[in-house]
Design a protein that fits this description.
Order of helices and strands: HHHHHHHHHH
Structural class: mainly alpha
Membrane topology: Multi-pass membrane protein
Strand content: under 5%
Subcellular location: Cell membrane
Family: Belongs to the binding-protein-dependent transport system permease family.
Radius of gyration: 22 Å
Number of strands: 0
Distance between the termini: 14 Å
Helix content: over 70%
Largest sheet: none
Pfam families: BPD_transp_1
Organism: Nonomuraea antimicrobica
Number of helices: 10
Length: 263
Amino acid sequence: MPMAGLVLVVAFVLLALVGPLVTGDPAAQEYLATLAPPSGAHPMGTDDLERDAFARIAHGAQVSLQAGVLSTLLAMAVGIPIGLVAGFYRRWLDPVVMRLVDVTLAFPFLVFAVGLAAIIGPSLKGVVLALGFSQLPAVIRITRGEVLAVREMDYVAAAVADGSGDGHLIFRYVLPNCASPLIVQATVAIPAAIIGESTLSFLGLGVQPPTPSWGVMLTTAQQYLSDAPWLAVWPGLMIALATLGFNLLGDGLRDVLDPRSVR
């Protein structure tokens, strides 16, 4: 199953990077091709504005990849240092950070993202910021938990007895031994962000037309479910396959990187 996940992820990345170069302009219209069914000229059919659905799917994959990767990188870049400091130094900082994290985690991920997106404004930048900060509490909590476990290990105590300073302990012993669960968390966060981007765009809080997005395509498809069901099938299928691929890949990485896993 992890290999299947890797294949799906590679296919998704290739679609996002190479697809737009092959399909051309997603806004190009073909006369008298309104809601045309899938054919040789249009493998995924056309939409209500005579635009090729495959071209829009490919460009929408690029938007989803940007939103998923950039929001996850933002959450990791901000959350790992906060969790690292809170777990390593503890004292008064740890309870303050964790109470704020607990309050934030009381809100479901998508509800929190919708609220932030409404404040920031509809755009790809707004989607990245909203999804990144919505994923931040989980990253902080995981990092802090791993740091608490690692700092009690014998090799850390031996390094302290040898006179190692805080910086050396953190970057030489603590952070490298927290990397595995954080890598797995990233593979889980990316598909959540892809679904989040599609949801925000579907609600009108994300990428705005005419920029192609799988969520925007689903919004348009609502009006033509009986006449042109393929308009809803293709973006929905792409969202499902992309998230499935990253989740399967994450499960495989967890089994490989976790020494406690049973093979």
